[in-house]
Specification:
The chain is globular and about 80 Å long. It folds into 3 domains: 2-222, no CATH class; 226-410, Rossmann fold (3-Layer(aba) Sandwich), CATH 3.40.50; 416-470. The chain has helices at residues 2-13, 20-37, 50-63, 69-87, 98-109, 113-121, 128-145, 149-160, 186-198, 206-216, 254-268, 286-296, 315-322, 345-353, 391-403, 416-429, 436-449, 455-470, and strands spanning 226-230, 235-238, 276-279, 302-306, 328-333, 363-369, 407-410. It is an alpha/beta fold and 482 residues long.
Length: 482
């Protein structure tokens, strides 16, 4: 379908009966758009990407009275290449025109003085002068957006092919360059991109843009609902393909989920909320629940930020980076535990309890652990002769980390009835056609062959069963005697 569409547009572009007045009108629009760029103030950085600069370079070649065909051909090829590269990472699938998709994505994501002010102080407190200038900048950007792929392709072909007819079939318009892959945080970003494309007056986009930035933030990381702290480089990194698990697929922990959801909703609403410690045996769904919560509230502005235990000492630096940002960050520390000689837990203790510097209000900590006493405790800590005189203080110190989490929730190993309930519900969700009696018999057999009962074991069993029921063997290739 895409090839047919491009070819249709190509054939349209080859219509030599097209009036020269249309070409001249299109050139006038290009000239006006290029002139408008010189008046940009707040949104100048939107065009500072490689693709943006390449398209501007192409437009400048088109505006000269006698464009150099070679230079113009190279400019179009370079712009096409840069837009194709940009489409792999930062465009929006809502728009098929690569230039328009790139421009909309940059407008949404590129940080600037206006968007940063919205994120830092809120839309209600933005300078009226800044907002007035933003409206003028948006109208200038709209002129660039109106230069669609078909127009720029026709103008380039008309200027180049008379002297270099070999290039008559060199290009197609830059439609549908974006790969067909699942994007993160698509709903609100996609809706905003559609609104940008359909708007007749971009000055009216001030409100929807500010609403987006107030919830999700600005800059290149705003498009991600899950981040990772790169301790080596001491920077935040967006996760392009986060785990898409949902709370509905985590059976048997409805009570825990209810408490967690209530706490997260208070956090997002700006109300007092608790740091969270989820503890229990491996495979009971602690980590999966955290990731599912992040997916549930991503559209409300919750962003999951994963930090490895070995980088806990970076937490103060992370807090500094998150301060005055719009999203609500759920700091996720998985499988938290410390040996007796490790002291990094003290940084976490201080952050949980607070220091002279207030912790950012948009930051909540959630940790998982296989034990409630996160710091290993030995019998010698309980007061043996010739050992620590203040043994009780030592023991209290090691237990105090867990106590600083205001919400502590247990994830217990399911009994047999609960285990079978999890299996049955997962099989139902996946629409597996198998009698209940056979399903339960095989689930118990799987449990005996593996590491006991848990939500993880139940899911692994259903995964295996689904593959078995839906698998179609590849027919063997017949062999012929020599």
């Amino acid at each position: 379908m895409m090839e047919e569409r491009v070819e249709d547009k190509y054939r349209e572009g080859q219509d030599h009966s097209e009036a020269s007045s249309i070409i001249n009108g299109a050139l006038d629009n290009v000239i006006t758009a290029v002139h408008a760029v010189h008046g940009l103030t707040l949104l100048r950085d939107v065009l500072k990407s490689a693709a943006g600069q390449a398209v501007l370079h192409l437009l400048e070649h088109l505006t000269v009275s006698a464009p150099d065909p070679v230079a113009l051909a190279n400019a179009y090829s370079a712009a096409f290449q840069q837009l194709a590269l940009a489409a792999q990472v930062d465009a929006t699938s809502e728009l098929s025109d690569a230039w328009q998709a790139h421009l909309a994505a940059r407008l949404i994501d590129a940080g600037n003085l206006w968007s940063s002010q919205v994120e830092r102080v809120g839309s209600a407190n933005v300078s009226s002068t800044v907002r007035a200038q933003a409206r003028r900048d948006l109208r200038a950007m709209q002129r660039l957006f109106s230069l669609d792929a078909q127009t720029l392709w026709r103008l380039t072909s008309a200027a180049v092919t008379p002297s270099m007819p070999i290039l008559r079939n060199a290009w197609v318009p830059w439609y549908d360059l974006m790969p067909d892959v699942k994007q993160t945080r698509t709903t609100m970003r996609a809706a905003l991109a559609r609104q940008i494309a359909k708007s007749d007056d971009w000055a009216t986009l001030v409100t929807p843009l500010e609403e987006y930035w107030s919830r999700y933030g600005t800059g290149s990381l705003a498009r991600y609902s899950v981040l990772r702290w790169q301790g080596t480089d001491r920077r935040l990194e967006g996760i392009q393909y986060p785990d898409s698990i949902q709370l509905s697929s985590l059976i048997g922990h409805e009570r825990q989920q209810s408490r967690l959801r209530s706490n997260i909703e208070r956090f997002i609403a700006g109300l007092p909320s608790h740091d969270i410690l989820l503890y229990g045996p491996p495979g009971t769904g602690k980590s999966s629940t955290v990731k599912a919560l992040a997916n549930t509230y991503a559209e409300q502005g919750l962003c999951l930020l994963e930090i490895a235990k070995e980088h806990i000492s970076d937490l103060p630096h992370v807090a500094t980076q998150l301060r005055d940002r719009a999203p609500h960050y759920l700091i996720f520390i998985d499988d938290l535990s410390f040996e007796e000689h490790e002291t990094a837990y003290k940084v976490l203790k201080v952050l949980l309890e607070g220091t002279a510097e207030a912790r950012p209000a948009n930051m909540l900590i959630c940790a998982t652990s296989n034990r409630i006493n996160i710091i290993r405790e030995n019998f010698k800590d309980r007061g043996q002769p010739t050992q620590d005189v203040n043994w009780r203080d030592t023991m209290d110190e090691k237990q105090s980390l867990a106590h600083r989490f205001g919400m502590r929730i247990t994830f217990a190993t399911p009994d047999q009835q609960q285990y079978l309930h999890i299996v049955t519900q997962l099989a139902y969700q996946r629409e597996l056609d198998i009698p209940d009696e056979q399903l339960q018999e095989r689930a118990l057999q799987w449990e005996r062959q593996h590491a006991g009962r848990s939500g993880r074991v139940a899911r692994q069993f259903v995964d295996d069963l689904e593959a078995e029921l839906k698998y179609t063997p590849i027919p063997e290739t017949a062999t012929h005697p020599a």
